[in-house]
Design a protein that fits this description.
The protein is mainly alpha-helical. Helices cover about 85% and strands about 0% of the residues. Helix 2 packs antiparallel against helix 3.
Length: about 100
């Protein structure tokens, strides 16, 4: 938690998570854009990946925020982006191996 003791370390971890979240979000957003514009059959796959992210975010937040505070919130966002990307990759490899 961000308390008066050990704030420097907590802010450093929070900064790393903010940087990681920003980069991962931009990469995932661009990859989703490219995939969605290949053909209309993959739109259901990207929607399924988004649903996986919507499920992963509150579950990760429930687990991480009580222990880590605001850093846990950013960690939950990073985890959800990773979950979305993983689900999308698995679905694409299963249904459209040519992509």
């Amino acid at each position: 938690m961000l308390t008066s003791e050990g704030t420097t370390g907590a802010y450093l971890v929070l900064g790393v998570f903010v940087l990681a979240e920003t980069v991962l979000f931009a990469v995932r957003l661009y990859a989703g854009f490219l995939i969605e514009n290949t053909n209309s059959k993959v739109l259901t796959l990207t929607a399924s990946a988004s649903i996986a992210g919507l499920i992963a975010t509150p579950l990760a937040a429930l687990a991480l925020v009580p222990a880590m505070g605001p850093v846990g919130g950013f960690a939950a966002l990073v985890f959800a982006i990773g979950a979305r990307a993983t689900v999308l990759r698995r679905l694409l490899r299963r249904h459209h191996p040519e992509l």
